Amino acid sequence: MHAQDLFRAKLPLKLKDDSAKTKPISSGDKAADQVRTAELAEEISAMQDIFYAENDRKMLIILQGMDTSGKDGTVRGVFGRLDPLGVRCVSFRAPSITEREHDYFWRVHREVPAQREMVIFNRSHYEDVLYPAVHGLIDDRECKRRYRQIQDFERMLTETGTVLLKFFLHISYEEQKERLAARLADPQKHWKVDLNDLKERQHWDQYQRLYEKAIEATDTDHAPWYVIPADSKSHRNLAIASIMVESMKDLKLNYPPPNPDYFAIDVK
């Protein structure tokens, strides 16, 4: 079975801790999985070269997940070999005053990929449903309105040439506890500590239910959601790299036709 089929969100979605621990495409050997991921990352890099040369291609990759689910690690482990001339990573944090004065898509839309560009969103417009809903800033009716707006936004992107892939990094409650505790215990990782992460952890169940609703409401064939078991960092990267390779092969990328006149040019 292709990784795309294996990890495509199964609706109705139920996010359970046990499913975050699974490793369905692991070889059983962590080192071997890491080698395979590195090989896939090289394939992605090679296909990026053709992607960049085709001129009219655009790709948006969305990484969502609870704090410590591994969004940064995925960027390094899967996309770290890409040519920086053709890739860009955007991290969305709490909106600034200027951003809050605009509609919530304003800061997102200006960061979507241009032609020949691959863009990775570390968090995204989905934060503008999840966080305010958890904290009572918007009600269920407004959530549904925003789901509809997100559908419209993503359809517009894909209809204007953007390939859109969305990954939910699914970790368990216990795994998050261990990762947060590890950061607190290691002075070299204190720079990563955000005490707000501990506060948000108190709303774990609400976030899980809201992620279920958001994924169900916005999973489409043109903008699919992939639910990635992420308790294992090596398996997480292997799964995402596998889906990326399959998705890029589906594009049937080819270099533009050569210019026959160039073969006759004598460089002095």
UniProtKB/TrEMBL annotation:
GO terms for biological process: polyphosphate metabolic process. NCBIfam families: PPK2_rel_1 (TIGR03709). The keyword Transferase applies. It comes from the Bacteria. Belongs to the polyphosphate kinase 2 (PPK2) family. Class I subfamily. Residues 29-251 form the Polyphosphate kinase-2-related domain. This is PPK2 family polyphosphate:nucleotide phosphotransferase. SUPFAM superfamilies: P-loop containing nucleoside triphosphate hydrolases. GO terms for molecular function: polyphosphate kinase activity. Keywords: Kinase, Transferase.
